[in-house]
Amino acid sequence: MIRKTLDARRVSRRELLSLFGAGTVAAMGISLAGPAFADAKAVDAAINKLTGGKTPASGKIAMDTPQIAENGSTVPITINVDSPMSDSDHVKALHLWADGNPSPEVASFHFTPMSGKAYVSTRIRLAKTQNVVAVAEMSDGSFTMAKSEVKVTIGGCGG
Description:
The protein is an alpha+beta fold.
């Protein structure tokens, strides 16, 4: 009886193709939505959470970033924090954010007095033109911050 019911309803080629087509379009719609990007508010909230509401000072961080990055996949960045790196006065951590990436948290680096200096040279991925923010957490509980805008171009054609 069940077999007869199944045989009674044959699916035409046109119906089958339309069903697969609708499923493909639905799947594409989900993937074409793309990631939501962070913004300056998200970075400010993350910094506020890290600092416990304290306002970070400025001036101790030297951040070397390109003004224009032709390839957002490998943006070179160098950060140096002015600190004696002694037992009583050293950088505990350095945190990086990018306010235009889908996830604003880029990296965190941890230091001890044995590190000798608080220096980082790395490459990061940036989705589009945006600010890169560095916050250094000092051993005395204070924070210092620096910000740099990096313009990301696609094939050197502006962006």
